[in-house]
Design brief:
This protein is an alpha/beta fold. 45% of the residues lie in helices and 11% in strands. The longest helix has 21 residues.
């Protein structure tokens, strides 16, 4: 499914609903550059040095495209289902009442690596489509800056002292002030007066600012509007304000808030995937469409009318899907910088910040590289995909093109959506193979960097998989259809224990491990069919492969 600026809010409820029901979500990014030669004459091979280089790259280049492949398990067919969305991303602000202000206070310098540009062009990437119709974004930090300026000031009026201007500008200021004053004294007769450039042609930018300033500082009962057509195009029309100044300011501030929410775009998805509040982050009218809307957008209208963002938010705050990627560490630096906060200088702080937002991550490249020495041949994502695509287990069905108006069915490698779909396939089948071969036992003692002093609490305690709360457990089991609503918490605990004991491929060992843990695996909602394919998160398998990532050229890191 192709997602852009025009259809983003129409498709957003469907993407959130997919996240709500998914066990995993595979992500992939296309960026305007992936490496930098700036600022470093020596190659620092420490993990901190590698992180610093990747931090500089994420700060220098931009995200151009993001792919999301949501992965859920179909109990009726015992098949994993994927649904993929490819989102073009633009650093540009779309033309609006706020765009000029935003570009002056949040101006973005975007750069392209010649190598990345040539690579993407060679694979059919459409830069014009990404930049001109990509989904807009504001990070949490951008939003704070915008709120500070937009909601505390009248954005049209940042005062200029006329005495600091040349004599011609001072004369224009005085004459315009007298002209408007006479209009007010005449009780707004005629209905409108025209402010022109005394030197001919259109009013320039300074003159327009001075007109707004005169109205704001001296005549709040008036309003000024630039004339865009006719004989007076480029002049300013001055008329009586029809609503109280206070109401006008309130309306403008509300419009500013709505515009900031609209510009937040993709940040809403990452808030949802990290268990943060998002239900009030958009205006409901953006997802409903009238009869004159394009047919493609109308196809989403019926679902959007029934979508409950508050319930979806509550469910995702309890149970968010595991984040999966290939070579995920670098993607996470871009995601963090672009949609969350500025990247911290220290590696440990970055690892803790990511783990706080995404308590479960899986890097398929780490899974492939673990146990191999650095001299062994590498495998690209598409090469790994080719080796796994023809295998049968676990069964995977891509439902993307069953979606109305899915678009771009010819996408290939290095389209972010297609790459996220490949990552989903590699993840499921590589996990299945490694688990059944018991590779995690041999790899359990492999050296991996663990952040020092990571005391940030793991908010995943509220997720369905980790939580020991019996009441939550029952709700979790009901959600996934493992139990009916009248099953007690005690029955649920007993049933969950039996799920893992009966359906783990290594039943005897799993029974022993559960006893060692002395815990009720209350969040384990895997059915018989699913538990035989992919291990539950509490399994020792993820103690080896989960929350760890490969850092190119150095070593492995743990996020927890």
């Amino acid at each position: 499914m192709e997602v852009n600026r025009d259809n983003f809010f129409s498709v957003l409820p469907t993407m959130l609903a997919e996240a709500e029901k998914s066990r995993f979500v595979a992500v992939d990014l296309e960026m305007s550059g992936i490496s930098s030669t700036q600022g470093r004459t020596r190659y620092d091979t420490t993990l901190q040095g590698s992180y610093t280089r990747l931090k500089e790259v994420a700060e220098q280049f931009q995200v151009l495209q993001i792919g999301f492949s949501f992965i859920s398990f179909n109990e009726q067919t015992s098949t994993y289902q994927t649904r993929t969305f490819n989102c073009n991303v633009s650093p540009l602000f779309p033309r609006s009442s706020l765009s000029d202000f935003l570009t002056s206070h949040l101006d973005r310098t975007f750069q392209f690596s010649a190598r990345s540009y040539n690579f993407l062009v060679r694979h059919g990437f459409d830069f014009n489509r990404a930049l001109n119709n990509g989904v807009s974004y504001l990070s949490c930090n951008d939003q704070r800056i915008a709120e500070q300026h937009l909601l505390s000031k009248n954005i049209e009026h940042e005062s200029i002292d006329p005495l600091t201007l040349d004599k011609e500008s001072q004369a224009f200021y005085a004459d315009t002030k007298d002209q408007i004053g006479a209009f007010v004294l005449a009780h707004f007769k005629p209905d409108r007066i025209i402010v022109k450039n005394p030197h001919g042609d259109k009013l320039n930018g300074l003159q327009i600012r001075l007109v707004y300033q005169i109205i704001h500082d001296n005549y709040p009962e008036c309003m000024a509007k630039k004339i865009s057509s006719g004989d007076m195009a480029g002049c300013m029309g001055i008329s009586q304000l029809k609503e109280p100044t206070g109401l006008k300011v309130q309306r403008r501030q509300q419009d500013n808030k709505d515009e900031m929410k609209r510009l937040s775009g993709l940040q809403i998805l990452f808030e949802a995937l990290s268990g943060q509040p998002f239900a009030t982050s958009w205006n409901p009218r953006w997802i409903y469409h009238s009869d004159n809307t394009s047919p493609d957008l109308q196809k989403w209208a019926e679902f959007n009318k029934t979508f409950d963002p508050i319930q979806c938010e509550a469910n995702l705050m309890k149970s968010r899907p595991t984040l999966v990627g290939h070579n995920l560490f670098q993607d996470l630096t871009f995601i963090y910088h672009t949609f969350i906060e500025p990247l911290p200088p220290k590696l440990d702080d970055f690892l803790a910040g990511v783990h706080n937002r995404f308590p479960r991550i899986v890097d398929t490249k780490f899974m492939f590289k673990l146990g191999k020495n650095m001299m062994e041949p590498d495998q690209t994502l598409d090469a790994l995909y080719a080796s796994y695509a023809s295998r049968d287990l676990p069964p995977i069905r891509d439902t993307t093109h069953e979606t109305p108006a899915s678009g771009n069915t010819k996408a290939g490698a290095h389209n972010a959506g297609f790459d996220s779909q490949m990552t989903a396939v590699v993840f499921l089948r590589q996990t299945h193979d490694l688990y059944n071969a018991e590779k995690h036992h041999a790899m359990a003692g492999m050296e991996c960097y663990i952040p020092v002093g990571n005391s940030i609490p793991d908010k995943s305690a509220d997720s369905l998989i980790d939580r020991d709360d019996a009441e939550m457990s029952g709700a979790a089991m009901q959600k996934f259809g493992v139990l009916t609503a009248d099953d007690s918490a005690a029955k649920q605990a007993e049933s969950t224990m039996k799920v893992d004991v009966l359906w783990s491929p290594k039943t005897g060992r799993m029974k022993e491990d559960l006893r060692k843990r002395k815990m009720v695996v209350s969040g384990e909602t895997y059915s018989a069919g699913e538990a035989s394919m992919i291990p539950s998160w509490v399994d020792d398998f993820w103690g080896t492969y989960g929350n760890r990532s490969f850092v190119a050229g150095t070593s492995y890191v743990s996020f927890a």
